[in-house]
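G., the chain you wanted modeled:
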Amino acid sequence: MTPPVKVMLVDDHAVVREGYRRLLEREPDIEVVAEAANAAQACERARALRPDVVVMDIALPGTSGLETMRRMLADRPQLRVLMFSMYDDAIFCSRALQAGALGYLSKASAPEVLLEAIRAVSRGEHYMSPDVAANMRRSASSPGWSGLESLTAREFEVLRLLVQGMVVKEIGARLGLSEKTVANHQSAIREKLGARNGVQLARLAAQLGLA
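Predicted structure as tokens:
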């Protein structure tokens, strides 16, 4: 008999994790072996409990889900990660897949889609929920998409925090970078996206689904 797929749930909302757990525990081929509310817990429990699949929110407090995933995969490359997020925008999915995720679902997905995605990812297959896949197709031809795709992982993180309204000092503290480094990233982002100032950058980010 094939052993069940061992799953870890990573989300900062306990109620959300409980809902996922109840759904998954009804399935005989899936076992929830751990939960985590932040990056530190997620990395520690993934190392200790060795789940097959991690279902993780991209927007964790502090260290983002993308950075958390990078740390996990550096420690254990065979780990399979499914991003499950309120963001259905193509750029978040694109970044997650580039960083090593095998799947990406929006939280608007039906419960059976989550189950299907976990099983697919556990087999090493890529999976996107239908709404995210449709957004990926639309965004590929959008103005500014190529510039956004050209951002490094760190530049994307800086842009995401700028769009949230953080200033350079706050971003530096969040990411463990000097203010000068953050300012340099900000300049590179504007150049790649063709934005002359913060207002243009915010407007472009909104058009591309980041705001």
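The mean pLDDT is 87.

Shout if anything looks off.
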